[in-house]
Design brief:
A: Jelly Rolls; 3 domains; 13-stranded mixed sheet; B: mainly alpha; 7 helices; 0% strand
């Protein structure tokens, strides 16, 4: 779907280009589509060659004669007839193209072959998997109340689509470097990496030189930026402001034609306002009316500090909870991972290094090398379990990654991991199926978009309701009836790796790649309200 | 004309359509492309002594044309509608990979043009043969020029699809 859209966008832009209609914004959009994309570049070459050929066929293309400069240089002007005859000869010499090719792209064995495999039909799935239609990242969100369907959080990748916020502030960074602060109430549509539509709201934008051409479309005007800092305000009653703080923007009528005669340039230190009636006046630019990038940073920082303090308070309260059989808050240091529960099943840290967690002041362990792990020993037999962890996955290899794996593969012992497909999975061996075991996998929740983002994973195992349930960021993503009715064990186990594997070395690689900054195990199955509440109180 | 001059004129005249096609892909506006062509021709003449006649002339000429495109680009102010150097370099490489196929594609175009209706073909070729043809046609047929341009866009895309199809039938991995 997304590719189809891109292809038609590309074709439309190419049409505008060859018809000589393309604006600066469209050229910029075209550059983004072409950059590093061999398929798009090939389409470009085919389109332009078709255009050139049609020109030639219709005889409009002038046969460029050797120009006057050159004629004076060489002292003789070839006759028109000579040129036409030679041009005819040239058009018959179809082998020319081949020679250019050989020169520009010298044959280099397998490399040459590889270039023809770009859209090999036998491997569409791998190509499909590695694509993403994201155009920007939501970098900060302060006191945001989302009113639409789309409720991204800080760190989320944004695809073209609508963002509705009834209040609060967000900061968006587009892949081309454009930074945008949006203050609610706002109704914003991200069209592409080069353009947004603002139906309502306050925007402040910083456009670097290399992203010039970024455009903001509103009901009253189209704004094309030429590398600058500016702000736009579209009120609910239709009043609209443009304030340019630095650089230069172009304004056009909102009819999409961008006719040059209508172009109005607004320079740094200038501002203009449309009243709801459409009457336009010059006003004094007012930077204070729009949250600045510094405000955003400070407010985000203080919010993050507040959230961290809030989490610390909750953390103390959880310590006396008898239903918790192990609680690793990752706030210790040295080589011991302290268990804050009564069990005192402290972990031994091997390899992992201490680093920063969900908040700047929160500690976390980084799992990177195949040897990195935390060994624990958690005795007991459980009729119910809740496993909850805050993890930041930093890579998604096509193999399993351990969250918590019991040593070896013993009957009725817990395996909790992320599969190669990004699913959350609980499994164990049972007497009837010692070889394969049984497992419960959620739909894929870890996609490339989750890389580098803090997420809350939670799984419950409950014999009384006979269910296994998986949760992702407080939301239930999977629920299935238990296939066996047996108690679960943990015992000797590893966080982020798999120890004492059944076969002698070399061992299967199961290490987790990323950071973990909280892991709690309950001997009950928490319900959806409890899980949602814990998630709300601990999210970054 | 002395020998070198006549040899140059003969070589340049022969390779010119291919060089012009190449330049046209990087510099779509005809007037700009013609400027680049003129600069290229001058430069080629100045450097003609260094040309090794054992090697094909066209690739040698295209190397100069590429440099002329880049230096033309540098002379354009930022208000001009031009691609960045980075994109030009990427397109240059892609043209190099594709150009052995382009001649086959142009051949396929003839058959594809015949698949359009007479009316469609007429509109398309007129757009290409006369300045202001679309505006005139719009006035005559009472159809908005915008709509005609849209139709022409669609015709080009249909031709591309037809060419891609033919290429695939002939066994090329991607049209």
């Amino acid at each position: 779907m997304g590719d189809f859209k891109k292809q038609s966008d590309l074709d439309q832009l190419l049409g505008r280009l060859v018809d000589g209609e393309a604006t600066a914004a469209e050229i910029a959009a075209l550059e983004i589509l072409l950059d590093g994309n061999p398929d798009a570049q090939r389409r470009y070459v085919h389109y332009l060659d078709l255009h050139g050929e049609l020109l030639l066929k219709s005889n409009m293309q002038p046969v460029v004669s050797i120009n006057s400069n050159l004629s004076t240089l060489i002292g003789a002007r070839p006759t028109t007839r000579q040129i036409i005859v030679s041009a005819l000869v040239a058009s018959i010499l179809i082998a020319f193209g081949l020679r250019i090719g050989q020169w520009m792209n010298p044959p280099s064995g397998d490399d040459n072959y590889a270039q023809y495999n770009v859209d090999d039909p036998i491997s569409p799935s791998t190509i499909e998997d590695s694509r993403d239609d994201g155009v920007a990242v939501l970098t900060h969100a302060v006191d945001v109340e989302w009113s639409g369907k789309n409720k991204p959080q800080a760190g989320s990748i944004l695809s073209p689509g609508t963002l509705n916020l009834s209040g609060g502030l967000i900061q968006i960074e587009f892949y081309n470097g454009v930074q945008l602060i949006v203050e609610g109430p706002a109704d914003l549509e991200i069209v592409s990496v080069a353009s947004v539509i603002c139906h309502e709201g306050k925007l402040r934008s910083l456009v670097p030189q290399n992203a010039r051409g970024f455009s903001v479309l509103t009901p009253k005007f189209d704004l094309v930026d030429l590398g600058t800092e500016f702000a736009v305000y579209v009120a609910s009653d239709g009043r609209s402001d443009v304030h340019v703080f630095e650089g230069e923007v172009e304004l056009y009528l909102p009819d999409g034609k961008r006719e040059l005669e209508q172009k109005q340039v607004l320079l740094g230190g200038q501002a203009t306002q449309w009243l709801p009636t459409g009457i336009r006046t010059s006003i004094t630019p007012n930077p204070e009316a729009f949250a600045s990038f510094e405000d955003m940073r400070v407010r985000d920082q203080s919010l993050s500090q507040k959230r961290f303090v809030n989490w610390q308070r909750g953390n103390v309260a959880l310590r006396d909870n008898p239903q918790i059989v192990a609680r690793y808050d990752f706030e210790s240091d040295g080589s011991r991972l302290v268990d804050r529960s009564e069990t005192k099943a402290h972990g031994t840290i091997i390899g992992c290094e201490w680093t920063v967690g969900r908040w700047p002041d929160k500690r976390a362990l980084e799992f990177k090398r195949p040897g990195d792990r935390v060994r624990i020993d958690l005795p007991g037999e459980f009729d119910a379990l809740t496993l909850m962890a805050w993890v930041r996955v930093d890579a998604l290899p096509s193999r399993q990654q351990s969250l918590l794996l019991t040593d070896n593969v013993k009957i009725d012992h817990l395996h909790w991991q992320i599969t190669g497909k990004g699913e959350l999975r609980i499994s164990s061996r049972i007497p009837a199926q010692v070889r394969t075991g049984i497992g419960y996998s959620s739909p894929p929740v870890f996609t490339p978009r989750q890389i580098g983002v803090w997420n809350c994973v939670c799984s419950t195992y409950d014999r009384s309701s006979r269910t296994v349930t998986h949760w992702f960021n407080g939301q239930q993503v999977f629920r299935e009836t238990l296939k066996t009715d047996l108690p679960m064990h943990i015992g000797l186990a590893e966080i982020g790796n798999w120890g004492m594997q059944p076969r002698p070395a070399p061992h299967k690689i199961r290490n987790f790649i990323g950071r973990i900054d909280e892991l709690t195990i309950w001997n009950v199955a928490l319900n959806e309200h409890q899980i949602a509440e814990i998630y709300e109180n601990s999210r970054p | 004309m002395d020998d070198a001059t006549s040899e140059f004129v003969s070589l340049w005249t022969r390779c010119q359509p291919d060089v012009r096609r190449y330049v046209g892909m990087l510099v779509p506006k005809a007037a700009d492309a013609d400027d680049v062509m003129q600069q290229t021709a001058s430069r080629l003449w100045i450097k003609f002594e260094e040309y090794d006649s054992d090697r094909p002339f066209t690739p040698w000429a295209i190397g100069f044309a590429y440099h002329e495109v880049l230096s033309w680009r540098q002379k354009q102010g930022r208000e001009r509608l031009v691609f960045s150097e980075e994109i030009l370099a990427q397109l240059h490489a892609t043209i190099g990979e594709e150009c052995s196929l382009l001649e086959h594609r142009r051949y396929a175009l003839d058959g594809c043009l015949l698949k359009l209706s007479e009316k469609e073909r007429d509109l398309l070729l007129r757009r290409y043969s006369e300045h202001g043809a679309v505006q005139r046609e719009a006035k005559q047929s009472q159809i908005s020029p915008h709509k005609l341009y849209y139709t022409i866009d669609k015709l080009r895309i249909r031709l591309l699809a037809c060419i891609n199809n033919k290429m695939r039938q002939e066994g090329w991995q991607h049209g």
